């Protein structure tokens, strides 16, 4: 199916639901082919004004004729949503979950037999088309189903297809990753203030340094360790700074943080029966 003919329903329009909606429109889906659900009338009006899409508070009505149905409610609310809309889905409609920790099997067990399900883990930069998402197909999703979902997500940024067993690790690194980056940006900006820069200038320097450094690695393909060595002159200022970071265990702390996020994802999945 061509993207320009696909009908999309987004059930739940929090941060991730809106990010997928915006990305689908950015990829070329016509606003008239998109229906989004929102509980609050003011939120529905906001989405219609901002994107030109149809809105409703009725999940069943939104899902009824859709070719792709994005389920973007909180994981704890997902079972209830599936119970509500399961019988309304077209048998060939592709169900896309953006709920952390819930496997494709969780959805397949609660939907019609052989309903195509695709699991997606995006991150918040998807809202501006700069996201990193992981996609895993369920047991009934065909290559054509996957291609359709990839087309819908094309406007959210980069998307990789991974085995579902990688989803917890992906979420721990890229899903939670923006929070780690914001943490580093805040620390660097605070450090700039500590050495005498204004907060506005310090924040600007930190943001652009991170953007430029990431772009350099992306465009050259150079290993970050080699790029770091090229900035680090023997006996210079940078090597002294890096020694302090190593002494503080910063590298190990990042590894511990990602492992902790992965472990919590696995725990949440167990708690929710995912």
Structure description:
By secondary structure, this protein is α/β, with parallel strands linked by helices. It has 2 domains: 3-164, NAD(P)-binding Rossmann-like Domain (Rossmann fold, 3-Layer(aba) Sandwich); 177-269, ProC C-terminal domain-like (ProC C-terminal domain-like fold), CATH 1.10.3730. Helices cover 53% and strands 13% of the residues. The chain is built from 12 helices and 8 strands. The chain has helices at 15-27, 41-51, 59-64, 78-85, 104-108, 143-153, 167-175, 177-194, 199-220, 224-231, 237-247, 250-272; strands at 8-11, 34-37, 54-56, 68-71, 94-97, 117-121, 131-137, 157-161. An 8-stranded mixed sheet has the order 3-2-1-4-5-6-7-8. The longest helix has 23 residues, at 250-272.
The amount of beta strand, in percent, is 5-15%
CATH class of the largest domain: Alpha Beta
Broad shape: elongated
Distance between the termini: 30 Å
Number of strands: 8
Integer tally of domains? 2
What is the typical, i.e. mean, pLDDT?
95
